[in-house]
Amino acid sequence: MAREAHPVLDPTPDAGTARSAPPARRRLLVPLLVAVLLAQMAVAMVTAAVRQTPTIDEPVYVATAAGYLHEHRVRLNPEHPPLGKLVIAVGVAFARPHVDPSFTGTQEAAGRHLLYRSGNDPWRLMLWARLPVIALTLLFGLVVFAFTRDLAGPVPALAALALYALSPDVVAYGSLATLDVPAAGFLLTSVWLLWRARRGRARRYLPLAGAALGAALATKMSTLPAVPVLAALAALSMCSRRPRDARRALLGAGVVTVAAVAVVWAAYLMVDPRLRWDPGATHVPVVHGLRGHLVRLLPFPEAYRDGMRIQFGLENRSWAGFLFGHVYTGARWYYLPVALVVKTPLGMLALWTAGAILLVVVRRLRPAAPYVLVPAAVLLASAMTGARDLGTRYAVFLPMFLAVAAGCVLTVRRRWAPVAVAALVAFVAVSSMRTFPYYLPYSNEAFGGPAKTHLRLHDSNVDWGQDLGRLADRLHDRYRGERVWLVYKGSGLPASYGIDASDPRRVPAGQVHGLLVVSDSAVAEAKGPLAVLLRSSRPVDEVGHSITLYRR
User: Fold this and answer.
1) What percent of the chain is predicted at pLDDT more than 90?
2) Is it true that the peptide bond before 11 is cis, omega within 30 degrees of 0?
3) What is the largest CA-CA distance in the chain?
4) Distances (CA, A) of 408 to 2, 347, 364, 387
5) What is the DSSP string of 25-42?
6) Are 153 and 4 in contact (CB under 8 A)?
7) How far apart are CA 46 and CA 134, in angstroms?
8) DSSP string across 126-143
9) pLDDT tens digits, 76-100
10) What does the angle CA 319 – CA 321 – CA 322 come to, to the nearest 5 degrees?
11) What is the distance between the alpha carbons of residues 545 and 552, in angstroms, rounded to a whole number?
12) What pLDDT score was predicted for residue 104?
């Protein structure tokens, strides 16, 4: 295992300033570069957050967060635990929105009601809701840096942080008031703390690792498959110095598990100290068989277990998928790997692959392989078995874990290694900056860039409803006064952004003349009257690489 590389000052009394100054400057250079990388990431995320209208999921989370602040109970969105929405609630509290306590609609309707029908400014409210997630995403960048520094030293850690900060997926989803990045980041933090426990001071790091794991579980239930993996890693950390001490191994796994369960309970208690939960207010499906038995065994509040039942109900539905121009129903096991190849910068793919191989092959790095690679592999396998082929956000943990692996490439003692890594990181930087500020529809150069993503993928990979505001500006600037027909897939209300449009699917095709505006996800899944309209229309413009304008 590589030791940390720190500049060493000359300890002799005769060492002069001329000899001590360069190492001192080098010590300052590393934190300066960390600050620069995180600053550019912050600019990218804040710019995206300011310009994007609500994506499909965000209004639900924001309305739920507002409900936590005003009702102090779990009611909306029980299919996701409360911690991620409590993070969002920090920003919502600063926005001080007006909440209508008499509204009793669905969670989707509650989101639209809060944003557009309660006297609130949707732009301001969404920005405040997104800022805590942006801050958390930046903090997870420090975890990537610290983890890699522990494995390989400060220079590899800078390379890993650069890959994390330049990842289009991390920037895209880290700038939204959603749960994917917080859940993945908490999980990475837990694994890093388990690695530190392996190196010593297990009494300090194991409870912290359990708390971080609990934070992931209290944010998204999709992190549950990581629990046995991290419990095994806790046992491994405890046994690294005493390989045959089974009691220490069980103690380590138990500490992490108990701490994680305690954090989940604490998250629900923060919302409602009385733990009120009315399953009758939400349709909770009955789950039979092994799944039902496992849900009953979960040592969590009843609201969590019912949320898990709702998730299983969603998994039993048939979802529409779209991959390389083909529309299908159900899920394909290879969807996520293919989507990741499309939406990951080419230089990043190369460094991920090299780093993963080195962790397994290089003897001094091999002890870290179970920590960096196994949790990511288990979560990816779990996500690949899901029923919803809707985006790489379900695997946003990969740019975090594999950035750590990629940084370890610099431990290779070859002259070409630093040059190759620098060139690939520069390639990633150019690719990422070229997509600014349209990070959500990013695809790499091999697949035509963000302008071509909609030809191969759909939904949150490219068009999640984020460009309604940009569409309003485009219509005002270039198409003022024209008749507009709109098929929009998203949670925003077009009229709230000054868009006066009709739905072309509600009238005969012969009456649809003028400008036909269609979200690219709707284009991907088009059938019936909309498919007929698209075949007889000519594309003339696009907005944000997610909405296409046609002339009829």
Assistant:
1) 88
2) no
3) 91
4) 9, 15, 11, 34
5) HHHHHHHHHHHHHHHHHH
6) yes
7) 8
8) HHHHHHHHHHHHHHHHHH
9) 999 999 999 999 999 999 999 999 9
10) 160
11) 20
12) 87
Runs of H (alpha helix) within 78-201: 83-95, 107-116, 122-152, 154-166, 168-174, 180-199
Q: Do 92 and 64 touch, CB atoms closer than 8 A? A: no
The full DSSP string for 228-280 is HHHHHHHHHHHHSSSTT-HHHHHHHHHHHHHHHHHHHHHHHHHH-TT----GG
For residue 216, count CB atoms less than 10 angstroms from its CB and return exposed for 0-12, middle for 13-18, buried for 19 or more.
buried
Cα 294 to chain centroid distance, Å, stands at 27
**Residue 408 to residue 147: CA distance in whole angstroms:** 11
- Give the DSSP H or E segment for 211: helix 202-217
Contacts of 457 (CB under 8 A, 6+ apart): 322, 323, 339, 342, 343, 391, 443
Render pLDDT for 132-167 as a digit per residue (tens, 0 to 9). 999 999 999 999 999 999 999 999 999 999 999 999
Helical H runs in 344-443?
346-361, 369-372, 374-384, 398-407, 416-434
Compute the distance between CA of residue 192 and CA of residue 177 in angstroms, rounded to an integer: 25
Weakest-pLDDT range from 3-17, 82-96, 383-397: 3-17
Joined tokens for residue 455: 């030809």
Query: What does the block give as tokens for 418?
Result: 């630093």
Overall size of the chain counted in residues: 552
Tokens coding 485: 């027909």
Locate 423 and state its tokens. 């060139």
pTM of the model: 0.93
At residue 177, what are phi and psi to the nearest 5 degrees? -85, 65
Distance separating alpha carbons of residues 254 and 264, to the nearest angstrom: 16
Report the run of H or E that residue 311 belongs to, with start and end: helix 302-315
Report the b/e string of 430-445 with b at 16+ CB within 10 A. Answer: ebbeebebbbbbbbbe
Radius of gyration of the chain (CA): 25
- Is residue 60 a contact partner of residue 115, using CB atoms and an 8 Å limit? no
Do 468 and 499 form a contact (C-beta atoms < 8 A)? yes
Helices (H) and strands (E) in the chain, counts: 22, 6
Please, which residues bridge with residue 516 across strands? 485, 550
pLDDT reading at 22 higher than 90: no
DSSP labels for 462-480? T-SSTTHHHHHHHHHHH-T
For 322, list phi and psi in degrees, rounded to 5. -145, 125
Q: Tokens 């379900």 belong to which residue?
A: 394
Assess whether pLDDT exceeds 90 at residue 6. Answer: no
Judge contact between 284 and 303, C-beta under 8 A: no
